[in-house]
Fold:
Amino acid sequence: ALLNVQEDHTFTESVLFGFGSALGFTLVMLIFAGLRERLELSNVPEAFKGVPIGFVTAGLLSMAFMGFSGLVAN
Structure:
C-alpha cells in the first residue's frame, strides 16, 4: 500500500500492482520449493544440510532476480 501511495498510482494501477506482486511471490515460492526438493535428494555436505544450504540457495536466487531489476524502465 505504501508503494502505491508513494508512486501516486490510480486504483487500477494499484490493483494490477497487487496482482503482479502476488504472482511474483508465488513464482519465487514455487522455484524455492523445487530447489529445496532437489537439494534433499542431492549429496550436500553435512555442514550445509538444512538451514545453511537454504540460506545459500536464497542468496543465489536473490542475486539471480537482481539481474532483472534493470529490465523494466521507470
Helices lie at 2-6, 11-41, 51-66. Residues 2-66 form one domain. The first helix runs from residue 2 to 6. The CA atoms of residues 14 and 27 lie 20 Å apart.
